Amino acid sequence: MMKEKMIVNDILCLFSCFFLMGCNAIKEDNTKVYVDSYSQTALQQADIIMDGIQSENCEEIADIFCTYIKKNHPELQTDIKAWMKYIDGNIISYDPPTTERGSLNTGESGVEMLVMEADIDNVKTDTGKTYCIGMGSYSVFKNHSDCVGVTDLLIRDLDAEKENKEDSQVRVEYDDIWTIEYGK
């Protein structure tokens, strides 16, 4: 049921993007509208990540990763499980997710690459710890549609950061995806 809702929401979001774009290339004055439409997808992905953490369902989180990572990294679910265990205790509260645009590359035919980031701040646990959870995703990657989706996850232990501890954050990230964008 939840997956069906996600699929319907994704289709509606894509339809909205196409409707807002029309048949023309992106122009400077409507880039914000275009990016905002993808912000909604990033917010939905952040909600799925929080649901997955709270229900200890790494499959739910792995499902929103891009096809490239799912195909080339069979260890993804194991890495997500380890990533989730970094949080000490049960989550009792958190701020609503926020998004911001990362990279936006345009060409003659419009947007060629769009990176969206989402953060969930003030994630508090019943052990008194405070975290920030983040994710990055390619929303558009022309000629590399298998890279569209979540690409990396981050948990920052804000208490450990204040104490300048070396292990103040943990990531799920695979460098080979960056070689597609930046070359070797």
What count of domains describes the coordinates?
Answer: 1
Q: Report the major sheet.
A: 6 strands, antiparallel
Q: What's the total count of β strands? A: 6
* SS content category: alpha+beta
Compressed to H and E, one letter per element, the order equals HHHHHEEEEEHEH
Q: Helical residue percent?
A: 40-55%
Distance between the termini: 41 Å
Average pLDDT works out at 83
Q: How many helical elements?
A: 7
Fill in the CATH topology. Nuclear Transport Factor 2, Chain: A
* pLDDT < 50 runs, ≥5 residues: 6-29
Q: Would you identify the CATH architecture?
A: Roll
CATH structural class: Alpha Beta
Backbone shape: globular
Q: What is the beta-strand fraction?
A: 25-35%
Radius of gyration: 17 Å
